[in-house]
Amino acid sequence: MAGAYFTKATLQFLRDLQTNNDRAWFAEHRHRYERHVKEPALRFIEAFAPELRTLSPHFMATPRSLFRIYRDTRFSRDKSPYKTAAGIHFRHDSAANAHAPGFYVHIEPGACFVGMGIWHPDAPALRQIREHIVDDPKTWKKASRNAAFTGQYQLQGDALKRAPKGFDSDHPLIDDLRRKDFIGVRRVPQSFITNPGLPRELADTFQRGVPLVRFLCDAVGVAF
Q1: Residues whose CB falls within 8 Å of the CB of residue 178, separated by 6 or more in sequence, listed in order
Q2: Structural domains of the chain sorted by starting position, each given as residue range(s) with its CATH number in brackets
Q3: What whole-number distance in Å separates Cα of residue 34 and Cα of residue 211?
Q4: What is the SS3 assignment for 133?
Q5: Cα–Cα distance between 222 and 203 in angstroms, integer?
Q6: Whole-prediction pTM value?
Q7: Over 90: is that where the pLDDT of 78 sits?
């Protein structure tokens, strides 16, 4: 088996960036970012592509799957120029951005996780998902409450405090209907990320969330 894609050096660079988040430091240490974060991430994405196709042919594993290290600070009080985590998003081939069905890997010292679903869907997609839950509660409960999924994942994200407009506040699935994000998240140890067998291991754990992603794809009218 080939060596690990991500190593202790990957996590150490991100840890150092957390305490040195400025352009001068990054310029001096860019070679570490390229060697220990960007290059292994691109190698991993290439290796994961065939594994991803075993889950669905409609999700993309390309160099664009790796999020840029640069933060968009235009509308943020935090003007730190760099992200202190590496994010890899395998999004649906019909999607224009990250706000669409997809699978995700988050590499951050002490806070690594994997996940799938839809984060911050736009208003039309959000309504479609809610309506699909109302129309097909049996499939939604199978997707979000089956033992294979709940044994590793938790549904997380933002939610409304009250029932969304047009939906019954007494609906038995009101907690789900109040969601603004539909994402399953599994926290993983560093050893999961640094495992040389990461592509296969990741495909295995993503498999547990396939019913959830399929439900969301059906809801927003894209192929799974």
Answers
A1: 159, 160, 161, 162, 163, 164
A2: 8-220 (3.30.930.20)
A3: 36
A4: helix
A5: 21
A6: 0.93
A7: no
